[in-house]
Design a protein that fits this description.
The chain has 109 residues and is an alpha+beta fold. It has four helices and six strands, in the order H-E-H-E-E-E-H-H-E-E. The chain has one domain. A hairpin with a 5-residue loop joins strand 3 (44-51) and strand 4.
């Protein structure tokens, strides 16, 4: 499903009253993830993420963070995340070669 199909499907997170939050606004902050859904974009897969602290915003997750959400899905824990939330710290990390920077999330208590 691409982004246009996603927004027209009716089976998604309602984005009509939300604006996109930029990654830089999240770096260094602890936020509570309350929901997510996957979409296909021209650049591959992404996830749309909703936070407790920013109820009027959504965030497009990168591939690294999408992998975290796939692990949550595979563990059957998405419903628990939607009910309890998942507190995470946003940070920047470098790849092993030290040549590229990416956004990372780390679960916190």
């Amino acid at each position: 499903m691409n982004f246009k199909q996603f927004t027209e499907s009716g089976e998604h997170i309602d984005l009509s009253k939300r604006t996109q939050i930029k990654t830089d606004e999240l770096i260094g902050n602890v936020v509570t993830i309350k929901d997510y859904t996957f979409i296909k974009t021209k650049n591959g897969e992404s996830a749309i993420v909703i936070f407790d602290e920013y109820s009027d915003k959504f965030w497009f997750a990168n591939n690294v963070v999408c992998q975290v959400f796939h692990r949550i899905d595979n563990a059957g824990a998405k419903e628990q995340l939607q009910t309890e939330g998942m507190k995470v710290l946003f940070s920047k990390k470098k790849n092993k070669a030290g040549t590229k920077e990416y956004t990372n999330i780390e679960a916190v208590e």
